[in-house]
Design brief:
By secondary structure, this protein is an alpha+beta fold. Helix content is 39%, strand content 15%. It has five helices and seven strands. A hairpin with a 6-residue loop joins strand 2 and strand 3. It starts with a helix and ends with a strand.
Length: 192
């Protein structure tokens, strides 16, 4: 008889743990979803309007490049993660690198513009930074928290630079996997 009472009590605890876990998961999912457009809000509600009204960039954007149709422009944004970390963010709503908009012949070459913007790293550092130490990165649909395309412009860690340098002959102008990954993650890379 004690076994019958024990099983329902254990079952009640298990149900309670599952319910609490589901509530925590729902709260977390709601928080993530509510913050997934933060970059877009900053670009569309702060940086672009300020540029249009005053012809100058507003913090946290340090440069705003607008086009006549406002669909091909971009902003350079000082990211709060690290002293030498900037983002290039389109002024058009583009979810990510997988967007069909980016495959159009008249689309802005955001990767090229991010490469040109690497001088902000040197400006921030107060000294020249060799091009071998510059990293451009774009998060995949599965690895991003923001639903707005953004390109990270940052300095590469010396150990990562050494790893990639030892594998440079394996890369070409076509995208290919980085052998052994980086920090336990799968990446693709190409030469420019």
């Amino acid at each position: 008889m004690k076994r019958k009472k024990r099983l329902p009590k254990l079952l009640k605890w298990l149900v309670a743990i599952i319910m609490v876990s589901l509530v925590i998961l729902a709260i977390w999912w709601g928080w993530v979803r509510s913050h997934s457009n933060e970059l877009w809000k900053i670009v569309s509600e702060q940086c672009v309007p300020h540029q249009q009204l005053s012809a100058s960039a507003a913090s946290p954007c340090i440069n705003v490049v607008l086009t006549p149709d406002a669909q091909r422009g971009y902003v350079i944004f000082k990211d709060r993660n690290g002293p030498l970390h900037f983002l290039l963010i389109p002024t058009a709503k583009i979810d990510g690198i997988e967007s069909k908009v980016l495959q159009q012949p008249d689309s802005t070459d955001y990767l090229y513009q991010a490469w040109v913007a690497r001088h902000y790293l040197a400006q921030q550092a107060g000294k020249p930074i060799s091009r071998e130490m510059v990293s451009l990165a774009i998060n995949s649909a599965y690895g991003r928290s923001q639903e707005q395309l953004h390109i990270h412009i940052a300095c590469i860690k010396p150990e990562i630079q050494a790893q990639l340098g030892s594998q440079i002959d394996k890369f070409s102008e076509k995208w290919s996997s980085v052998p052994y990954g980086i920090n336990g993650h799968h990446y693709i890379a190409r030469t420019l």
